[in-house]
Amino acid sequence: MNTEEKLKHFKEICESDVRIRAEKLLSEQRETLESRFAAHREAALHHQSMQLQLEEERIAREQNKEYSLKLTELRREIGELRRELKDQLFVELRDRLANFMETPAYLTLLKKQISAAKEFAGEDEIRIYLDPADEPLLKKLSLALSTELTLSRYSFLGGTRAVIPAKNILIDNSFETKLEDARASFRFTLESEHGGEAQDE
């Protein structure tokens, strides 16, 4: 092999070695870039996922807050409506009681209340009071039941009140007290979606 052939052979070996090293460097660089890109992509996707989750939670909180505010407002409106209806109902009830006091059935009721109070008192002294509006019935009831009756100085909307001093007992059959008790214990009863009854204040 002469010198020219040796130089040619050496050149081929050098070029081959350079090509192999260049390919290796390019391959390593490609792998590094791909690895970095994958890591960057994964981090970006994770960040995007976290941002999406935070935004969903923020929207859910806002919706819950809005729902809660609307529910509170609705409950307040329902409460006001219930109070208005309750007031109207008891105004109507008082009107009906006033009308009832003009009927013979009211006189019968007073007789029953007075007789029951006398029976309860037994031998003890009892003071039985009528409402001032019942003054026209005072003599008729006193004679019919052989009982001394007294007109109250204060209206209690009808019915009777009786006091047994010896036992410190008040028998309160006044319409005023019965209305107050009824109002205090009154609850709206609503039909539920399933056909049953649901009590509501």
Automatic annotation (TrEMBL):
Coiled-coil residue windows: 57-84
Gene3D superfamilies: ATP synthase, E subunit, C-terminal
Keyword Transport among record annotations: yes
Domain of life (superkingdom): Bacteria
Keyword ATP-binding listed: no
Molecular function, one GO term: proton-transporting ATPase activity, rotational mechanism
The protein, known as: Vacuolar-type H+-ATPase subunit E/Vma4
GO CC terms of this entry: proton-transporting two-sector ATPase complex, catalytic domain
Lineage of producing organism: Bacteria, Bacillati, Bacillota, Clostridia, Lachnospirales
Keyword terms: Coiled coil, Ion transport, Transport
Family of this protein: Belongs to the V-ATPase E subunit family.
